[in-house]
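User: Some background: our group keeps a shared notebook of sequences we're curious about, and every so often someone picks one and asks for a predicted structure to add to the entry. Today it's my turn. The entry only has the sequence so far, pasted here. Could you supply the structure so I can complete it?
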Amino acid sequence: MTGKQRILPKREPRGQDFSGKTPSPDEREPRSLRRLRAFLLVMVTLILVARPLFPSEGADLGDDVTPTMLVFGTVLIGIVFSLGRSVWRVKLQSVDLALLGTVVWLALAALRAVHSGTARPAINMLWVWVGYYVLWQLIRQLNLTDRERRAILAGMAALSVGVASYGLYQYFVELPHLRAGYQTRRTELLHELGWDDLLEDPVGLAQFENRLFSREPLATFALTNSLAGFLLPWSLVFLAAIVGNVKSLFDTSIETPSLLSPSRPHNTRQDGRLCKPTRRLAWAALGVSILGMVGLLCCLVLTKSRSAYIALACGLAVLLATGISLRGKVARRMVIVIMVLLALAFGVATATRGLDWQVLSEATKSLGYRWQYWQATTSMIADHPLLGCGPGNFRYAYTRYKLPEASEEISDPHNFLLEVVATGGIPAGAFFLLAIGLTLWHLKHSRSAWGLSSSAGSPPSSTVPLAGVSGKTVFHSRDQLWAIAMGWVLAWPAGYWLGLLSSAPQDLTFLLVGLPTAALVGLGLWPWIQAGPLVPGIVAAAIAAISINWLAAGGLTFPGVAGSFWLLWVLATDFPTDYSGKQPPTENQPSTRWSHRLQQLTAPEGFSVTLPTWAGLAILVFFGLVLAAFYITAYSPVLQARGLLSQATVARRFSIDRAKQFCRLAAEADPWAFEPWMRLVELWQAEGPAPPAKTGESFHSKPEVADLTTFLQKANRPSPQERAKELDSYAAALLQRAPNHHAASWILALAYQQLFRETNDRRALARAVSFARRAIELYPHQARYHAGLAELLRTIGDPDGAKKAAKTALWLHTITPHADRKLPDETVQFLEKLSQTP
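Assistant: Of course. Here's the predicted structure to add to the notebook entry:
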């Protein structure tokens, strides 16, 4: 051939990885599976990012049913579209089995609580735990690459900055404006928020006002401790990412790992330094990241969470010891920068009067409250060692053991380890501690493997199979960062939509304030995503911080906070531990194959098991049944009942009969819920004639709202006999669904007291006394209950019992140091006269 020949550039074979090895045909990933994996990455990122964008403290009330449905639906789609494969590979570790044991035992405790405790919270929290484990396994089976791990962690860190920016907006703009409006037009503002019932509840109104006039930001959470618990681990991950970006700018000794990328990136020069355009972008990214870090730390400090302060210090110590190399001038300077940022955050908080000496002076008082919670929880565990009180039932069981001087009725013991044992029993706690111990063992081996292989010039990576076949799953690992980015962007509107279906919907302010800030910070972390270090110490520091914080604050059952914990935990168990491990036996050695897998299961890295096609069909059927059970027992009844109860609240302003109809429909929609029946009892009370004012009743009576509609309905009021039958039916249904709920028994005592006043039927008075005694049995240290029992016993003709109850009420009134637990002055005077009666 004459003329010049065109020499085409040599192309790498299709499917060849960075190491130059071409995968075999059975290892090549079909395009359909890549698309499926991308969809799963989008959904996992969306769920992880969207969950902290609306309050999660009401998970026992059903606020987590929609995110859990997203998790189950995502897994079901993944199973269906994976059925065409000839074999299934599933990664499994010993920590997975330990967590599975925890969830199974909690499920047994929940089933017991459904029959002997408050059913609806037990069912809801059962599915929360199942959702935790399913999401855990979904993340593990995706076989994330190093860049994907860094992308997800960077996305969560950027989310934390967005949430913190919204918290700062609340602190400086929104809450001051809301306080000013509340002082001038309280009734109108409560009506706009849909909280008209607070006007009839002095205790609830006082609690609302205490939270409104407190200076701590809440952001997208209902409690400041929850906000601090969410910001805490991601501040450490964010800090490690910033250090990685700084070292890439200044430290020319950093070499790109040979197994992950070429020996020299295209944006560097021969001497290892970044090119000028790249350096400018890196400087801009670093500036945005540092500003975001300052805002995050300021918001964290403003929460005044003492346990978060201590956990942050411990996390920094772990990070500096294991997660960030202190070798070199740049690293030492970064330590100084960290101290400066912390000092700046505390300085801003002090200058804006968000931090004062009470944070330190009241530390012992706060610790004393925690000690009271833990004492009561220990007594609860001693009485229920095997199955505990049941998930979601802690708040109802706790009042039986609450100390007389304790401050409040809590929904968790403010210690995540005690919470697992108290709600699931000692076996559940043992499984949970076993999982933690296995994780610590894994991190120890992974740190050793990282150090040894890094010194050899090739750090271990998830893109390379681990020892044996433990790194293989049904999905072959390739970077799909675009899917993570798409899921992150979609999560923000999804968080708003999911919040509308919860008990505490958010407005669009968090989107308008948080999303732009978080997006800028996410772009600033792009250099770290591309080539930053992700050593086991970074994840270990974040887990240590959130665990230490939870030892005094709790939060394991708040999915918006706990999602970060589970994500970090599963990533911590996915680091390679034996970079040069033994190879598995071949197919010609079937007798030793299973023994080898058992050995791998006991090892930190675990193994991957190959399942036949029929196993995939069995998994599909099983998970389909699980999804159907979730829909029938939680998703559909919770959302239907919530909508109907909202309509009942609106209808209550115009027609009690219409409100009762909605409550009955809600009770039919959710046969396990007690709230519709409590609403019906309250409506029954409002429908009756106003009771005459008597001395000593102000501690339990509620002012009746007089409106024209209620006045016109009095002519059609049912007869006393019909009202008695109606109340009996409500009482039977309510006690069946909430036998351990003290408030349910007390409201029935008040209702039967009202029935006695209407009919003068002594049987109604006897039932009122019975329900009052039951409420005291469930909450023995409630002064208001003893005062009410004293009056009931005086009315029924038992002066000795009334005198004893009055003395108990006065003793509880005297011993409690909390003003909100004190009885009104007129009630105290009534009880003193009653106790002095000969």
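Suggested note for the entry: The chain is about 65% helix and 0% strand. The mean pLDDT is 81.
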